[in-house]
Structure formats: structure tokens, C-alpha cells
């Protein structure tokens, strides 16, 4: 998973909000065809929070079928540990390879509680777990050692971008423990994360423009600073500025960009909202710029 961009596919919905399994199959197959390091269905970008258990089963099953053993399938689970375990069992039955444990719902919790959450999930599934620290979840080095001692906890995805804390965690972790950059629009901070030993990252851009995401990843890997900085300056930074206009655009803009490229992903579900006409026009122009930079077509 550390050898390529991590794909977080969008969950396809019809215009009336119903799940579109065929659209999702087409979308996730196209994502897998671009050879990401792993595919993460039903996570944040995939609107896990809006899926019921039957829809979740369909999404994970389709991702497993399309991956066909060629790359890891890591399904999202979340809420309190009891509900997370229900999703974990569905993912296990569907053939997922591992689970991404999304931040628990609503309440703040002490470090002992954060550890206990993972202990409870780990005790009830055989699948490897990656803990996502973001929002109200932030591990100390002591807690990191405790969760890393659990046999099936294999890594942490970080969304805080606190490099001081993250460096402490990487130094506290056992050899082979995985770390991923899970910041929103992770490419913006990819070089900084790499300096503390975390080169792998998830890419929302990969969901609509794998050409751009893979070009950036390759340039970063090869030390091509000129290309990295041109993509950051002319595409990624303007994308972040557009994303920050409205809460929820971290998903809504990604879906809108995918639709602009003919991907059958449909609208977002409430409480998210699709971009305004003005923001959609700005997104279209920016997407054209990004694709032109890497020689791809809209």
C-alpha cells in the first residue's frame, strides 16, 4: 500500500438518492485499472456515513469483485465499536482484506477510551485494522504503543497534519507499522509528511483525475520538484481554495469533478450538497488546467 496512490472511490447514487450499484462497479473498475496501491471503498470520500448496512455490503462486495485479488481492499467502518463491528462482519463476509476504522461518532474521549475502541473491534474481527486519527481521535505515543501491540492493528492514517505529534508516533511504532497521510487534499502536505517518514497518502483527486494524481505521485517519488511545484501552484492549491468555500466540498467537489469527466457517480447525499453553478464553473476551469498540465483530456 505504500507503493502507490491510495484510491478512495466515490459511492454512486441515482438522482433520487438510491444506490447505483452498476455505476459504482464502473467507477471502481476504472479506479483499479489505474493501479493504485490499494482501494478503500465506503470510507469518507465514499460517504460511509450515509450508507445503510445493505448498501455497504453491496459497495464492499463490488470492490472486492473488481479488485479480484490484484490489490488490497480496505473497507471503512465506524461509529461506536458495536456498530463498527457490525460493518466489520459484513466487510469480512464480502471478502475485504482489511478495515479502516473511522473516527467514532460525536463525543470526545480520553486516550484509554480510544485504545479500548480499537481493542473491542479487534477482538471481534479477524481482519487487520488501520486506525484513522482525525477530528476527536488523536493518539499519544503511549497509546500508539498500546494499539500497535494488538496483533491485528497494522497502521495509522493521520488527518491532523501535526508533524510534531506524528513524528513522535512514528518513532514509538514498532518496525513495519504502517503510516499514511490522510490529510484533506493530501498532496499539499505530501512532501512535509515524507520528511517524518510517511510517504504514502490517500488522494481524493485520484477519484476523478488519476492522471493528475499519478503524475504528482511519480514526480514526488522521482524528486522532480519542478513538476511537483507546478502541479501544487496551478492545480492543487486552487483546488483547496475552492474546497474551502463550503463545508462538505471535500466530497461534493470530488463527485462533481468525476461527473464532469463522465463518471457515473451521481449526486451526493444529504447533509452534503452539490456545488453551486458558479463553483461548478470554477471547478470545470480548474480541472481543465490540471489535465492540460499532465497532457490528459477532459
Labels describing this entry:
about 300 residues, alpha/beta, 5-stranded parallel sheet, 3-stranded parallel sheet, 8 strands, about 45% helix, globular, Probable 5-dehydro-4-deoxyglucarate dehydratase
Summarize the topology.
Layout: E1 6-7, H1 21-33, E2 38-39, H2 53-67, E3 74-77, H3 81-94, E4 98-101, H4 111-122, E5 129-133, H5 141-148, E6 153-158, H6 163-172, E7 178-181, H7 190-195, E8 202-203, H8 210-222, H9 225-243, H10 249-260, H11 277-294
Parallel strand pairs: 1-2, 1-8, 3-4, 4-5, 5-6, 6-7
Helix pairs in contact: 1-2, 2-3, 3-4, 4-5, 5-6, 8-9, 9-11, 10-11
Structure description:
The protein is of the alpha/beta class and 298 residues long. 47% of the residues lie in helices and 10% in strands. It is built from eleven helices and eight strands. The strands form two sheets. A five-stranded parallel β-sheet has the order 3-4-5-6-7, covered by helices on one side. A three-stranded parallel β-sheet has the order 2-1-8, covered by helices on one side. Strand 4, helix 4 (111-122) and strand 5 (129-133) form a beta-alpha-beta unit. The longest helix has 19 residues, at 225-243. The two termini are 28 Å apart. Its EC number is 4.2.1.41. This is Probable 5-dehydro-4-deoxyglucarate dehydratase. It catalyses: 5-dehydro-4-deoxy-D-glucarate + H(+) = 2,5-dioxopentanoate + CO2 + H2O.
Amino acid at each position: 500500500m505504500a507503493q502507490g496512490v491510495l484510491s478512495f472511490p466515490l459511492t454512486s447514487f441515482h438522482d433520487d438518492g438510491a444506490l447505483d450499484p452498476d455505476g459504482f462497479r464502473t467507477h471502481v473498475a476504472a479506479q483499479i485499472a489505474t493501479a493504485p496501491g490499494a482501494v478503500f471503498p465506503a470510507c469518507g470520500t465514499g460517504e460511509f456515513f450515509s450508507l445503510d448496512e445493505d448498501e455497504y455490503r453491496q459497495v464492499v462486495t463490488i470492490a472486492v469483485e473488481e479488485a479480484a485479488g490484484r490489490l488490497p481492499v480496505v473497507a471503512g467502518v465506524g461509529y461506536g465499536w458495536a456498530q463498527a463491528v457490525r460493518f466489520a462482519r459484513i466487510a469480512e463476509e464480502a471478502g475485504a482484506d482489511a478495515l479502516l476504522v473511522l473516527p467514532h461518532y460525536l463525543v470526545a474521549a480520553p486516550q484509554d477510551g480510544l485504545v479500548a475502541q480499537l481493542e473491542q473491534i479487534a477482538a471481534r474481527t479477524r481482519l487487520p485494522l488501520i486506525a484513522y486519527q482525525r477530528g476527536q481521535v488523536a493518539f499519544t505515543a503511549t497509546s500508539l504503543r498500546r494499539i500497535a501491540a494488538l496483533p491485528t492493528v497494522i497502521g495509522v492514517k493521520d488527518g491532523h497534519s501535526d508533524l510534531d505529534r506524528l513524528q513522535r508516533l512514528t518513532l514509538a511504532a514498532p518496525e513495519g507499522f504502517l503510516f499514511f497521510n490522510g490529510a484533506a487534499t493530501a498532496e499539499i502536505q505530501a512532501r512535509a509528511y515524507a520528511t517524518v517518514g510517511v510517504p504514502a497518502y490517500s488522494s481524493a483527486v485520484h477519484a476523478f483525475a488519476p492522471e493528475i494524481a499519478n503524475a504528482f505521485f511519480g514526480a514526488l517519488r522521482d524528486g522532480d520538484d519542478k513538476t511537483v511545484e507546478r502541479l501544487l501552484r496551478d492545480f492543487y492549491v486552487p483546488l483547496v481554495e475552492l474546497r474551502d468555500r463550503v463545508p462538505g466540498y471535500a466530497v461534493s467537489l470530488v463527485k462533481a469533478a468525476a461527473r464532469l469527466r463522465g463518471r457515473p457517480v451521481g449526486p451526493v447525499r444529504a447533509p452534503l450538497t452539490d456545488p453551486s453553478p458558479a463553483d461548478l464553473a470554477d471547478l470545470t476551469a480548474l480541472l481543465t488546467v490540471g489535465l492540460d498540465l499532465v497532457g490528459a483530456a477532459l
